[in-house]
Write the structure tokens for this entry.
Amino acid sequence: MPAIFRTVAFTLLSVLIVVTYAPGIHAQAVKPATPNTQSTQEIDRDVWSVFVATVAADDIVRMGEAYFPNAVVVMPNATSPIKETLDRWGKDMVAAKAKGNRATVEFRFSRRQDDATTAFEAGIFRYTVIEKSGTRTSKCYPFEALLGKTNGKWRMLMERQFAEVSQAEWDKLAK
């Protein structure tokens, strides 16, 4: 197993242990980190800004490049390999474009921790559909992500999305 995967697996296990054996810890207020480290700025460039651009451009191929090939997406009721998830999201993009709709995504963070090669980030993303008529519908979803850096580029290994939350929850997080 490559070192990056061992490190990411250890990080995931550590998070699971903390959540399992320290009930209530997730409810503590965590001051949002701002992109002030080189790693955080690189993650913003290699991952989050790519997602913003690819959602707006309906570019599922480029979006897929922000994930490790064996990445996993965890939804409230299921898990799936990133390839299957990207196939589904790509079909949704094609269908929306055929209707004349477009979309945007924004991210706000409640937790950002990283070092030179691994990272764990959590927050909320707001996905907005702009219909051909101009009507906007936004939905907010909490997320967690495990990331690793390989060959000088950050990529996502695991994305976990939670059930939809209110706009008020989004508004609580710093821009």
